[in-house]
Amino acid sequence: MDEFFTDYTLRTVALGAGALGIVSGALGSFAVLRKQSLLGDALSHAALPGVALAFILTGTKGQLVLMLGAAIAGWIATLFVGLIIRHTRIKQDSALGLVLSVFFGFGLMLLTFIQQRADASQAGLDRFLFGQAAALLQSDVITMAAVGGVAIALMLIFWKELKLLSFDTDFAVTLGFPVRALDILLTTLLVLAIVVGLQTVGVVLMSAMVVAPAVAARQWTDKLAFMVAGAAGFGAISGVIGAYVSSREPNLPTGPAIVVCVTAFAIFSLAFAPNRGLVWSRVRQWRNAQTLRSSAVLADLLALAQQHAESPHGHSVEVLAAMRPEQGGVSRTLRYLAEKGLASRNHSGEWSLTGAGLEEAKREVTVREECT
Amino acid sequence: MMSDAISHVVLLGIVLSYFVTRDITSPFLILGATLTGLVTVVLVELLNKTRLVKEDAAIGLVFPFLFSIAVILIARYAGDVHLDTDAVLLGELAFAPFNRVELAGIDLGPKALVVMAIILAVSIAFVTIFFKELKLATFDASLASALGFAPVAIHYALMGLVSVTAVGAFDAVGSILVVALMIAPPAAAYLMTDNLSKMIVLSCVFGIVSAVSGYWLAVLLDANIAGSMATTAGLLFFLVLLAAPERGLVSAARRRAGQKQEFAQTMLTIHLLHHENRPEAEAESRTASLHEHLRWDPQFAQQVVVNAERQGLVTRRGPFLLLTDDGRGRAQREMSQ
User: Fold this and answer.
1) Separation between Cα atoms, residue A77 and residue B234, nearest integer Å
2) Is A34 in a helix, a strand, or coil?
């Protein structure tokens, strides 16, 4: 573990990935809540021509310049998407896909221009496409942290407004908030998050960095603050784990490693989070079904007992099963009742209510009658 | 966006099929890739069904995950094979003519062309045979279901075709162009017509135009062909967006301006009618003071008056405006509505 302190590259990459995780996780939460998950994907693809143009126009491969180009391109892409959605009957999904692919294709054209120039090597720009976390320098990480810090700060300053915007836009409008401006602000923050992450995980995988931490965090809480913090946490941890694993294993690119890790968090959260988790849902469902089934069988046993009040005797499983042909698992239910001490079996395999069972069955009848 | 997801995910299918067949040119790769595309659709639907994840988030979660696995597999186990991620996104159309298919010693043409021709034939057959079902399932899935069609099956068949197309086009043009050509031409066609058959035909035409012009642009600028085609597809869409009759931005703006004028003229007639034969008529019907009383900016007011005169709704007498009979009739009609 002390490799984190001794290995410069690992430390740098881990810090960069961690920063990326925090920013994209936090801001991605808002995108996911507003059903704009794919905006992240679209923005990251659309950033490519911005990066290329920034290089063509300025001739430098300086981080900030390229990031600025990416941000501006992402911005223009959002404007186009908005224009298409507002003025035509084309839906958000198609508008995003259209702008994404066209901008990206245009970006590719520009990249091939760059390829032809004598002075250029595309390598620096390629890393925006696929991410080259391993090539991160300390200065890169500092820039990422700074830009990301600005985004997070703005998010905190406008926390209440953004919260309202995400959950109840109409109410925000009626309260007089400048909803359009806030929308633009949120998109800008998302653009910043994406621009920060592009070099680390690349265009294709950026969508996961925006979506997965938020999805994971959402399963554990209903409160926005906890969700945003949780998403930031999941993102950061995934970034660090991805960086670490990638540095230890040969031929394991960092970007994909981070994405696999954060998606694993999401899957785990979807399955096991208390309340919403699918596993617990199943368990709860099963328990409820079991309760219903045992109530039914209990009532049947009571009915049988009352019919044979003069000469009480037990009844076989088949009889009880025949009473409720549409319900299965009668013998299992009877065993369950036996475990709870409500029914018992005599030596010839016949079931009847115990004293406690009789009381419980009568109580349930009364409750049912009170309810109807 | 599902097509975007599928076109990325086919890489995983190709990788896995490659591991099974150990042959990069095997047709089995197409099958594997298509299946992966379908698996993606299934996974997204499953996630969506849990209701814990909305559809857009599900897509954004599933495809990068599968793509990452593909990239990792390639890096670790297939590093020496020509299966690089660049090709996935970009393809290299320039080499397509050189990669030819031979059957019994006869040169059938470029592999890409043969493969895409077959896929085209299958697609045309599918769309033609199942036109009614596709139409209904697309516009009214519940009705389709109630009538006994199987919209889910149709959906998966369609997604399967999307996967096959993405894979087939892969080698030559990479995933991005597939997405661009699957969205931009149909979106442009959608802006031009309400009729589904016309839309499909128009979409094909736009697709062809984009591809051909994209190629010539690439030749002219010596640029990446696939990127160039995606760009022209986008430009074509943008042109249609502006210029489409009825739904285009230009015609919509014109329509709005026309409506604004009409409304203004009606307001003018009502205003004049309202003050006609009343003591303040003199003040209210001065041409020069209209902009004050109706809160119009002076240029606009001038325009409205000129147009109203041309339409025979008002006449000028000195500095005053008077309603004609036509004008009065219009005002009364509008007010009674």
Assistant:
1) 12
2) coil
Closest residue in chain A to residue B4, using alpha carbons only: A97
A324 with A313: CB under 8 angstroms? no
Strand partners, A351: A315, A345
Q: Choose the closest CB to B61 out of A87, A94, A266.
A: A266
Fold of B250-336: Arc Repressor Mutant, subunit A (1.10.10)
CATH topology classification for A3-274:
ABC transporter involved in vitamin B12 uptake, BtuC (1.10.3470)
The ipTM is 0.81
Q: Which CATH class is domain A280-367?
A: mainly alpha
Residue with tokens 């926390």: A159
Which pair of tokens denotes residue A335?
């065993």
CB contact under 8 A, A90 and B184: no
Looking at the partner chain, which of A41, A88, A257 has a beta carbon nearest the beta carbon of B247? Answer: A88
Contacts of B191 in chain A (CB under 8 A): 88-90
Is A205 within 8 Å of B67 when comparing Cβ atoms? Answer: yes
For residues A315 and A352, the answer to whether their CB atoms sit within 8 Å is: yes
The phi, psi pair for B314, rounded to 5°, reads -140, 160
Output the CA–CA distances (angstroms, integers) from residue B295 to A45, A336, B169, in the order listed: 47, 82, 60
List chain A residues with CB under 8 Å of B175: none
- What is the largest distance, in Å, between two alpha-carbon atoms of chain A? 106
A98-124: average pLDDT:
78
Domain boundaries, chain A: 3-274, 280-367
Q: What is the mean pLDDT of residues B159-173?
A: 80
Domains of chain B, residue spans: 250-336
CA A367/CA A85 separation, integer angstroms: 56
DSSP character string of A284-299: HHHHHHHHHHHHHHHH
State how far the Cα of B168 lies from the Cα of B170, in Å rounded to an integer.
Answer: 5
Q: How confident is the model at residue A30 (pLDDT cuts 50, 70, 90)?
A: very high
